[in-house]
Design brief:
Elements: H1 10-24, E1 43-45, E2 72-76, H2 86-102, E3 106-113, H3 117-126, E4 132-133, H4 140-145, H5 153-158, H6 167-173, E5 182-195, H7 196-201, H8 217-231, E6 234-237, H9 244-255, E7 265-267, E8 273-275, H10 280-294, H11 308-316, E9 320-326, E10 344-348, E11 357-367, H12 373-385, H13 394-409, H14 424-436, H15 446-453, E12 458-460, H16 467-483, H17 489-507
Helix pairs in contact: 9-10, 9-16, 10-16, 13-14, 16-17
Length: 510
Amino acid sequence: MKKQPRRFPILAVLALSLALLAACSGADNEPAATPDGDGGGTQSTQSVTTTPEAPTELADISVDVIDADLVATITLGNWPPDTAPAAELALFDGYKATMEKQYPGVTVVPAYYSYTLSNYIGMAIGGTAPTLFQPPFTDPQLLISQGLAADVTDALAEFGLLDKFSPAYIDLLGGEGGRIYGLPRDGYVLGMHININLFEEAGLIDDNGLPMYPKTLQELAEYGQIIREKTGKAGLVFPASETYGGWLYTNIAWNFGAVGENALLKQDADGWWYADFTSEPAIAAMEYLRSLQWEYNILNADATTTDWASAHTLLGTGEAAMNFAADDSVDQPTAGKGLAVDKFALIPFPAGPGGAYALAGGTCYMFAPGTTTDEAVATLGFLRLIGMLPYADDDAIASMRAGASSKRERGEPVIPPIPAWNDEVFVQAQRDIADEYSNVDWRLYQDFFDSFTEGTITLKGEEPVLAQQLYRELTAVIQRVINREDADIFSSMERAQNNFQEDVDDMINR
């Protein structure tokens, strides 16, 4: 029998949504290093054929014409890749067929696109960006200021959405004159994914049949060592390529105490920013990472070349037992790589000697520059169809149920999302549908959600300026530490600090 999720109180959920935004909508105009779970950054247009696997719930959505006069062609970057599970492709094929009936003058072009700022800029300038794309919360103000996103205020008003934005979202997605350039998709909180098969093989299962997961960073090292000794597999997969390692290091550093007066980035009374990578907590966090490699021997063998997508692969295929990851990517090791949902758990980010923090972020929908109001209206029509707008009418419920059914069919955990809209009825509908289609033992997720709804962990946004450069410099140190047991951590961190400070002085402190 399935275990039903415990519903969150609506007010607590909405408060969390606001907290996520408050954490992530600061002064940073630099791209986030939050990797996309699919990896890559290229656009491909594909034909999706009808299959008999489309969820039966799609039949409950009305195919009556909504707007016969709207004429537009939209390319949708939120389409699944052609390597996605058949059930997911069938779901979107069904959405496309329904859209074509509701809006007969609209042409929907599937265009899977895994956003990164570096490739998007060229596409936007060159006119090849998809109509709809999905950047992290840290990018909108940069895109808006550079004219790389379309003003969609009028289309949002036509759908009655403007009064459903929280003030924080207005700040995040707004520009001059009160104009709006996008809408929220969802939020995430960083925790850990675990492969229960390896915990079972290592004897790390309690009397209730649940994995004895690490509550602290020290326990992570110790449990990872047991897993290595008992199974021969990596206790922890750590993606230390590109910017990924530095991105994860920051959360570890916060939990060693690199916050407040010891923060990695500080701002003085005159508004100038300066870096501090050589504080005692920052050095201790890097020493901890060294110990995972050279003392406990729990890291995957190819950590310095492992990226975000391959980290999920290693966990899902049983080559690693733990991975730092969030609630918005639970599909990657399960439906994406074949790990059964009853052998997967999502747990809180382990606490450290300096506290218990977890990175909070999110993703929004934005529109390519040059998108017309008709194209924006058509795109919003599609987002409403797939259940991503705050409606709770019969069609919206049917669409959300179809999405949940497809997740369950393809072996993805059906869990409640962190909400993106300030609409209690819609949020409750999402919760109810997650309950209805649940395919998980909620005990494997309860502690994760409780950690921030009950306040046992503190949500924190990304470092406030030039996050990408910061992550890259710290990743270089991590790679040196992983490759050389005798690496001088203090000197390496001091060099990274000086390199990063040059960027801050050139781009921010002027």
